[in-house]
Amino acid sequence: MRLKYFIILCFCVFASSAGSQQIIHVSTDDISLIYRTGDNGRLYQIYVGQKLRHSPDFANLSNMGEAYIGNGMEDYFDPAVRVLHNDGNPSLLLKYISHEARQLQPNVTETVIHLQDDKYPFEVKLFFETYAKENIIKTYTELVHREKKPVTLYNYASSMLHLNAAKYYLTEFAGDWANEVKMTETPLTFGKKVLDTKLGSRAAMFCSPFFLLSCDEPAQENRGETLFGTIGWTGNFNFTFEVDQTNKLRIISGINPFASEYVLMPNELFRTPEFIFTYSAEGKGKASRDFHRWARTYQLKDGDKPRLTLLNNWEATYFDFNEDKLISIMDEAVKLGVDMFLLDDGWFGNKYPRSSDRQGLGDWQVTKDKLPNGVGKLVEEAAKRDIKFGIWIEPEMVNPKSELYENHPDWVIQLPNREPYYFRNQMVLDMSNPKVQDFVFGIVDNLKSQNPGIAYFKWDCNSPITNIFSPYLKDRQSHLYIEHVRGVYAVMKRVNEKYPDLPMMLCSGGGGRSDFEALKYFTEFWPSDNTDAVERIFIQWGYSHFFPSKSMAAHVTSWGKQPIKFRVDVAMMCKLGFDIRINELSADEQTFCHDAVQNFNRLGSSILEGDMYRLMSPYESDHAAVQYVKTGGRKSVLFAFDIHPRFGDRMQPLKLDGLHPDKRYILEEINLLPETKSYLPCNGEIYSGDYLMKVGIQVFSPQHMTSHVIEIEEIEVEVDQVR
Question: Contact at 8 Å (CB) between 341 and 306?
Fold first, then answer.
């Protein structure tokens, strides 16, 4: 690696001496996170927020709180780290040793701060990885000790941040199956608010691993100071928000320490997950766009590549299918114009055929009665039709009624001497066990080796961990939640290394897995099993705060019975797919769906890679609107929805965003049913970007469940032609 990638970056880390004091400035283009050592040798955070441009001003900043507070000393609130030394001492007092910075790649800088206990050989390293243009900061911690005997970790945060504002407003994203990411904003006052999960595998089923924190006023789309935070951990997480008696707020983020005391051996390195955050002074919209650009560029698998449109058979057939029926659906995929046919659950098991969710899970042999010619026949039939073939798996789970469970009960997480509790008639394989890891990797590897033409995997995970006991870990049961996730990552990494170009969907009964660490190995995730188009507007709205549209799979189904145009337009805001029998639609509806796929392919670079602007919230009105603007602003796509307007609802013009005020744009409504003309007054008209953003256009109506997709394109015209 070239020498310049290791140089100290003066513009990212400012270190000065004032006596024994050190100042450490972690920054992006728009954010500053600043630390300073005290006369006592300890490290304090003195600022987080909009970027401070002049280093002499740092001397005027006051201490906000210790950077990484240990337990057992003078602090009265929750610590970042709590340990028990081998002599029984439960305290930790960390002092600054040194810090350094290096450039990992253009635009990406790593800062490392070394801390050490003043009495014990216990060391902590705080890592900060900054993405300058995207204004994203990753932070994580490494813990290691050189005591003679093991040390027990009870708390081990990835991050501790301190804020000081007049008021704090927390937005959480919670819910349940088919009701994911329901947004709720509440003020924080003295005391603690905790967002966490104890579900283990399908960890985000009730509580999503991200939050918004707004200072001084409730979160707004285009104004105000807002912190967005999320953790990259596909397991139990914990966010603790604690306001003290002086109204200062500390935010502690990391693995949930519940039932997870970790015995750390001498010289063993414990690395926490990454806490990833941004701080916006221009409201939620800018923070989201920064997260989206960062995810597409650095975190999401194949974030710079297009996505495959598909037709799935699940809601069309459920478990009731055979080879002929699947091949007929492939013909429908061709008629629709999508890239791929996806075979869902129900294709495996012979002793216990997978005819329902009660049996067969874990037995990954093709069911001979359903598919006598195997998966290979389906791959061949797809290739004949010039479409790709994808397949569903749930490799980490097992039905008790399966050959796998009969042969390897010791591979399953389950309590001894207790009647097992089943969630969705299944149990979780013990991913801390290397033999289980080999088996799970082999599911993908065998399918790909035997059928190289498989172009896509939908990787599901439908159960949280129940019956929490690992036969493999034996006397280290408190390590289970952590080692299980590490095992999952080990398998995902092996799959990615052997099949780096293989697209995969991260599915977990819907949004049970939605974190950026897992998305290093997946091209997209399944936000919810709820595909009702009205509900999906809310679900996609919530996820859009952190995740770019190309990371969210959205399928057109029959769940909500809304007009086909409404369902397609909602799904087209993300990575478009279908899960219906195309031949059961009318001729006009079939033509409409085919044309919509063509529009999606044509406009994909704008929808999937453009900057997103949330213009009208379904939480605040009976309408919703989202706009995508391609980099440079030459092309934009607007999605507008009338959900359930009330009688007499006054329709105000919708102001657009992200356009160049001095450019001219022509508007055209697309995604229209055959023989249908647009009734929008803006259709075919030319406006300046200034007009569109300051005055707006009329796109809403009093009709229920109607939608409009408007293509907006920059053109060259004379000034007097502009409205």
Answer: no
Give dist(CA 446, CA 452) in Å, integer. 10
508 and 204 Cβ atoms separated by less than 8 Å: yes
Measured CA to CA, the distance from residue 359 to residue 334 in angstroms comes to 33
With b for 16 or more beta-carbon neighbours within 10 A and e for fewer, the 699-716 pattern comes to bbbeeebbbbbbbbebee
- Indicate the DSSP class of residue 516: T
Tokens of 454: 């498989």
pLDDT digits (tens, 9 = 90+) for 681-697: 999 999 999 999 999 99
Give the integer Cα–Cα distance in Å for 310 and 574: 13
Q: What is the DSSP letter of 445?
A: H
The C-alpha atoms of residue 238 and residue 198 are separated, in whole angstroms, by 9
Enclosing H/E stretch for 438: helix 434-450
Q: Bigger pLDDT: 19 or 140?
A: 140
Q: What is the pTM of this model?
A: 0.95
Burial 519-549 (b: 16+ CB within 10 A, else e): bbbbbbbbbbbbbbbbbbbbbbbbbbbbbbb
Q: Please, are residues 345 and 392 in contact by the beta-carbon 8 Å criterion?
A: yes
Helix (H, G, I), strand (E, B) or coil at 535: helix
* Nearest-angstrom CA–CA distance, 243 and 78: 11
The C-alpha atoms of residue 468 and residue 156 are separated, in whole angstroms, by 22
